[in-house]
Amino acid sequence: MSWTTVVWAMGASACLTVSAIHLVIGLRRPAAANLLVFATGLAVAVLAAFELTLMKSPVPEEHAWLLRWAHVPIAAIVVCLVLFVWTHVWSGRRWLGWLAIGLRLSCLVLNFLVEPNFNFSRITGVRPVRFLGETVYLTAGTTSRRGLLGLSASLLLIAFLLDATRAAWRQRSRPTAIVGASITIFIVIVTVLNVLTLSGVLPLPFLISLSYLGVVAAMGYELGFAVIRASQLELEVAKSRLELAHLSRVTLLGELSGSLAHEINQPLAAILANAQAGERILSRDGAHPGELRAILSDIIAADTRASEVIRRLRALLKKGEMELKPLGVAEIVRESLDLLRSDLLYRGVNVSADLPPDLPQAVGDRTQIQQVVVNLVTNACDAMEGNGGGERSLFVRAAAQDGGVLVSIADRGPGFSTEQFAHIFEPFFTTKTNGLGLGLVVCRTIVSAHGGSLWATNNPEGGATFQFTLPSSPARAV
User: What SS3 string covers the chain?
Assistant: First the structure.
């Protein structure tokens, strides 16, 4: 196999590989920039095939045909390159881009209207030369002055790229500006080599595709760098979301500190009372073992209750990454209501719950889902504070839904006005006197991160209902 075949085949293969990668990315995450890199790489690969065939052919008619059709991938490359600049990060004077596209397409149309092609007014034969250790064939004939129109189109493209690169540099997008400068250099090389080859100054075959390979590589590098930047930004956003969720939990538990202290003090007081009773029994003669056994059972039960409250508090205060695991949603809701039991009793809220034990398991982070439930129940209680002597009732329900579980929390508060309804999930909007306006924002962020949704509706009989869904399979990373 000859060196020309190896080099041009490797160049075409590299372009096709880059194209395939960006086609897959562009189809999975629809992005014009990826599809433009795919089209550019494909056009360069076709151009490389034309050039290799041109070098191997000793037939003048084939040279005329190949040079005519080579303008199609060249025009495609120019159009894709200008659109890539527009749709990606750079800015630039659009009129320059439109002029470059318009002039290049005019060359393409003219190329099919004249004989033998756009570059030559007459082809007289082929000329053999030595290149990379073998004989290749160059087109011999009279070049056409129409080539000045093609040169003008290339100069306009260079001007457009220089303008876009300068704008990227001024916007402090240094990596993008460097990539833009690299693409501009490759286009300059293409233009110079094309002029020197057609004029006969350089007795070489056309090397356009090899230079355009650099353009494809630079475009692919820029998109790869953008993906890395986007991934880093996603990680920072995810970290900030976790920090905000943790801060929200700490704030919420701070607001519930009084009732939580009471929830812990109750079993501790029971333990103390039972211990004192046991001490009195032991101090008198004829202590009955059954009485002591009953006292010890009460102490164990109270200790278990206190330990359970502390465990739940520790779980809510825990700071860490989101862990997606199979969850029993009914159990989480029940634990959340148990944690808030003292607060609900203090506020005089009657709770009715419909939590079937046979619900399908959802997938999520236990701590974060419990945070959502606690936050929504607390908000519902806050909404009913202004009811005065009115009914303070809460209805909590969990039900199976297609592909997951639906949880709803309905209260008998005042509900929301039309104006409030439009803003309840906006940051820092609150109807509470001392609220921060972040609770519902955090809840919706958590549910969305799990692949579910959170929404609210006004009840016909008064009050509001908050509902959220959780999928039964892991949320797909986006």
Answer: CCHHHHHHHHHHHHHHHHHHHHHHHHHHCCCHHHHHHHHHHHHHHHHHHHHHHHHHCCCHHHHHHHHHHCHHHHHHHHHHHHHHHHHCCCCCCHHHHHHHHHHHHHHHHHHCCCCCCCCEEEEEEEEEEEECCEEEEEEEEEECCCHHHHHHHHHHHHHHHHHHHHHHHHCCCHHHHHHHHHHHHHHHHHHHHHHHHHHCCCCCCCCHHHHHHHHHHHHHHHHHHHHHHHHHHHHHHHHHHHHHHHHHHHHHHHHCHHHHHHHHHHHHHHHHHHHHHHHHHHHCCCCCHHHHHHHHHHHHHHHHHHHHHHHHHHHHHCCCCCCCEEECHHHHHHHHHHHCHHHHHHHCCEEEEECCCCCCCEEECHHHHHHHHHHHHHHHHHHHHHHCCCCCEEEEEEEEECCEEEEEEEECCCCCCHHHHCCCCCCCCCCCCCCCCCHHHHHHHHHHHCCCCEEEEECCCCCEEEEEEEECCCCCCC
